[in-house]
Amino acid sequence: MLSVSRYMPLLLGFSMAVAACGPAAATVIATRSYSYFAIKGKTADQLDQQLSANGPTASGSSARHPGATKIRFGGDATYVQAGGRCRVASAKVTVHTQIILPRWTNRKGASKQLSMIWDALSSDIKRHEERHAEIARNQARAMERQILALPAQPSCERMQELVTDVSTRGIEEHDRLQARFDRIEAVNFQSRMMRLLNNRIRISGGAR
């Protein structure tokens, strides 16, 4: 149902610097943006049809989703060569996430029941996609730590190979984590929605 879109692999630029020894520096730069697609309807079936027709697609698939998160990784690393050994001097991992969410444009005049259903659904879609973004940020930090922990190598060429291996494995692990999250969410969707709706009904009833 709700799924992360395909993301680009982490690309690390190679640069070599001869400099005085110092502690390795690391930076994770994470940015997030939001965009929206419009849906219309006055019944639950109409809203569902609009989500199926207008929702975003994930790369490599024509299936539509009620929300999506586009994830783009990037980064670079610099190296210091001294005493016949090369080590990582600095690493910067970047991750940009674009969260795509539905916006109900003709909500005015809709029934209270339909509005309540939509509020529960849309809040769950947003939470789901923001969790995808959080998984990506956490994985960027994990890759950074792994790069900085690499032992010194006989050459910077060899060090670059290890950095590339770490980034490749990190992206593969990220893929597994995102897929696992989607599987868990799909299994729990019905019970989660019922719980959200019951909470909103209880709050609404208490407000009268």
Automatic annotation (TrEMBL):
One BP term from GO: proteolysis
Recorded superkingdom: Bacteria
Keywords, in A-Z order: Hydrolase, Protease, Signal
InterPro entries xref list: DUF922
Molecular function terms from GO: peptidase activity
Endpoints of the signal sequence: 1-19
Pfam families (alphabetical): DUF922
Name used for this protein in its record: Predicted secreted Zn-dependent protease
Organism annotation: Rhizobium tibeticum
